[in-house]
Specification:
mainly alpha; about 70 residues; 3 helices; single chain
């Protein structure tokens, strides 16, 4: 299976493809969690921040200027 570019997944997610957004989440959730953990130094809060960040990313898909 060929890995899709982020821009292609974003375009698909913007068109309503929840699986495409899921692939983006899988790709970036650990990075987001590490950043959050570095900010709050608390595993539980980092998990909460990661979930909130992913939710906000999903809710903001239509506000992106371009898919890149």
């Amino acid at each position: 299976m060929v890995e899709q570019r982020d821009a292609d997944l974003v375009a698909a997610a913007r068109a309503g493809d929840k699986d495409a957004f899921g692939q983006l989440v899988e790709r970036y959730q650990q990075i987001v969690k590490r950043i959050a953990l570095g900010m709050v130094r608390n595993e539980y809060l980092a998990q909460e921040l990661m979930q909130e960040t992913i939710l906000q990313a999903y809710l903001s898909l239509d506000q992106l200027r371009n898919d890149d």
